[in-house]
Sequence to fold (412 residues):
Amino acid sequence: MRYFYTCFVQLYRFSAFLAAPFNSKAKKWVSGRKNIFITLSTAAQKHEHWIWFHAASLGEFEQGRPLIESIKSQHPQYHILLTFFSPSGYEIRKDYPLADCVAYLPADTAKNAERLLTMFKPEAAFFIKYEFWFNYIEALHRHQIPLFYISAKFRAGQHFFRWYGAWFRKQLGYITHLFLQDENSARLLQAIGIKNFTVTGDTRFDRVVSLARQVNRFPQIEQFKHDHPLLIAGSTWPPDEALLLKLVGKLPEHYRLIIAPHDVAESHIKQLTSQLPVSYQRYSSFDASKACRILIIDSIGILSQLYQYADFVYIGGGFGVSIHNIQEPITFGCPVIFGPKYQRFSEAVDLVQSGGAFRVRSANELVDIALRFVSDPGFRQQASVICKSYVGQQQGATDRIIQALSQQFFTP
Fold:
């Protein structure tokens, strides 16, 4: 089975090479791994006592970040190797100051895994959430290097729980310990005989709460909002924007709308703005002397902090693969609305059940719930309180993991 798995890894790698001339993300994925072991070898020779963190992309890095910061604070003798699978993580965090080496993850082959571990000789490895790379897992096990999963989350449809999943289930036994987000993950693992886990919660809540406490001001946003109520639509895709276009004309004139598309390419921004039925400006060229009802965020990296200004929020992605992160807006007490694909996120499921988040399946449903927020401040405030209370209950995962690691790894 390992042979077939490795063939699949190589096939993915070959596909990325084929797509690179036509796709900017694939091009970065390929070029970033060119001569990767020269880069890694140079970094490995500079220090000893390495700990390895691996994240798929930016969102998973943010889940691991509180733990990196805690370890560097309490155990400064360790040096951090930080790897990413995706360009969207590496390109944004390649200069992360607490990491002594930031790099792309070499393709998951037995040879690459052996080379990386021989170079760095990490004393422990931490993989974030879903990052199951089985050749690396096997090599870490063979080298007797502790492997911990942080904020891991399992779903019934994963291969571990299918009739053909015996080999994948065996790999879970090579993991030293899994720190899980939720009880549902624990039940799934128990059902297949896996016991090396603890439910500690999602470390990203610690990160977003920390960010909310040191949030920056955005004068242009404050000028745009002024004393108007504000709806922010974050990480939107074309299906989300199609719904929002039908909502715009029904919002009261005193309402303001910020749209932050997931894709900020010029072609997409032009396509979106050509359809807007009311006055708009772009964030990059905002002029406070010109009145407008919609502001388009045409840059990346600031959305998480803009939620401080919102009265309620629409989160994109729910009409595609899955919704984007809702932890950032709910930390500011913003009720959230999203499409029907939200089941991957425990917080979304919990808040839909408790009344802090709202799922919509059509433009009419979006209009109905948005106008209820507009017309019923008490309803909106109740949803806001539910969100804030939920965030308060979810804090502390990082401390729980550090406490457990103090017994399992960071021993005197």
About this structure: The chain has a mean pLDDT of 94. Residues 8 and 192 are 25 Å apart (CA to CA). The radius of gyration is 23 Å.
